[in-house]
């Protein structure tokens, strides 16, 4: 299948690219600069241009940004991952919401207008669009599933960057389903809703200073930045990046994935567990880690919400990587870039 993948310079997209090529698909991927295209190309020296090609889309927040990029002969599927995931925002609307929402609606409009051969579209949404933050982690009588929607409002979105990010993902995913309802396009849409994503980074794109957001807490542990107290975990559920990448690719391969949302989590974790996994497997970081008796990072005493991850297992056949393997592989990949 010929696939357009947006944002291949990202942590998750780099793994999706790997799986797509492994499964024999032909990939055209968008990046923001020629320099990024060159780096990715170097990582796949033997891959011919028909199998791996690039198109530059500098800013997905611009209306019509994808209009030309989708004009690809024989294009059948699109995987849209590009969206800002960071908290350095000065203007929530411009920095987070516009690229998320206009990026998503923009690519859907562009496909409808200029790429009539496309049959499947997969969008990387987030648990952020499912979670009800006002209920906190100890909403013990609730089971999160694909039926839940984050009730965040625009007013709450601008209160702080965490709200802003979660709102950007919620508004973007809602806009995608609205598009399907109103425009009745020729293609199906599938959305992926992962919580915290951990796992190895690809060495060719990353450095310790320019690390994707969800892996930063592990970098902070092994570089001695949080020795006196383990920070709150925040979101207590996670998934390995390789399982998530496979799920995106299965979503274009498995017909039953069409028109569905997928909540993809492997289960619970706490920051304290992450520290103990690193301590057990990497004695060389003992001096950097918070000590054994340091406070914080535990599960809440009042318990946790529950989760239902059955759809992703039943429809896409995903088997989950255990937390210890994900963190060990991540730390190894951070060592490879100098940690
Ligand atoms: P990264 O920051 O590694 O990747 C983000 C990607 O989006 C990069 O390729 C980035 O390009 C691109 N991008 C951001 N803003 C723009 C813009 N204005 N114009 C063009 N490209 C842009 O993060 P992840 O890989 O973690 O995130 C990928 C997706 O997964 C996002 O949609 C995110 O919301 C979602 N997600 C991530 C989770 C996680 O824990 N990691 C959890 C749930 C969802 P560049 O590299 O050039 O900056």
TrEMBL record:
The keyword Oxidoreductase applies. Residues 3-260 form the NAD-dependent epimerase/dehydratase domain. GO terms for molecular function: oxidoreductase activity, acting on the CH-OH group of donors, NAD or NADP as acceptor. Signal peptide: none annotated. Keywords: Oxidoreductase. The keyword Translocase does not apply. Belongs to the NAD(P)-dependent epimerase/dehydratase family. Dihydroflavonol-4-reductase subfamily. This is Putative NADPH-dependent methylglyoxal reductase GRP2.
């Amino acid at each position: 299948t010929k696939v357009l993948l947006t944002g291949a310079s990202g942590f998750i997209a780099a793994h999706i690219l790997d799986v797509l090529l492994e499964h024999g698909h032909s990939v055209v991927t968008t990046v923001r600069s020629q320099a990024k295209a060159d780096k990715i190309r170097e990582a796949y020296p033997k891959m011919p241009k028909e199998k791996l090609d690039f198109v530059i889309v500098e800013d997905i927040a611009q209306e019509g940004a994808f209009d030309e990029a989708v004009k690809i002969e024989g294009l059948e599927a699109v995987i849209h991952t590009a969206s800002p995931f960071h908290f350095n925002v000065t203007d929530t609307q411009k920095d987070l919401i516009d690229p998320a929402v206009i990026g998503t609606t923009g690519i859907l409009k562009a496909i409808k207008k200029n790429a009539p051969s496309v049959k499947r579209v997969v969008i990387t949404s987030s648990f952020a669009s499912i979670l009800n933050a006002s209920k906190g982690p100890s909403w013990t009588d609730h089971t999160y599933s694909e039926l839940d929607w984050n009730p965040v409002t625009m007013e709450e979105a601008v209160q702080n960057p965490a709200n802003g990010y979660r709102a950007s993902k919620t508004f973007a995913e809602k806009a995608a389903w609205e598009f399907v309802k109103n425009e009745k396009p020729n293609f199906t849409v599938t959305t992926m809703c992962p919580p915290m994503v951990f796992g190895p980074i690809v060495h060719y794109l990353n450095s310790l200073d320019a690390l994707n957001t969800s892996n930063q807490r592990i970098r902070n542990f092994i570089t001695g930045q949080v020795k006196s107290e383990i920070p709150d975990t925040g979101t207590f559920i996670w998934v390995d990046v390789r399982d998530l990448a496979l799920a995106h690719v299965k979503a274009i391969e498995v017909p039953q994935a069409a028109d569905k949302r997928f909540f993809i989590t492997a289960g619970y974790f706490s920051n304290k567990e992450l520290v103990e996994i690193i301590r057990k497997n990497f004695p060389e970081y003992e001096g950097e880690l918070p000590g054994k008796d340091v406070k914080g990072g535990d599960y809440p005493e009042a318990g946790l919400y529950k989760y239902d991850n059955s759809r992703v297992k039943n429809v896409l056949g995903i088997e989950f990587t255990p937390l210890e393997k994900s963190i060990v592989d991540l730390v190894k990949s951070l060592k490879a870039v100098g940690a």
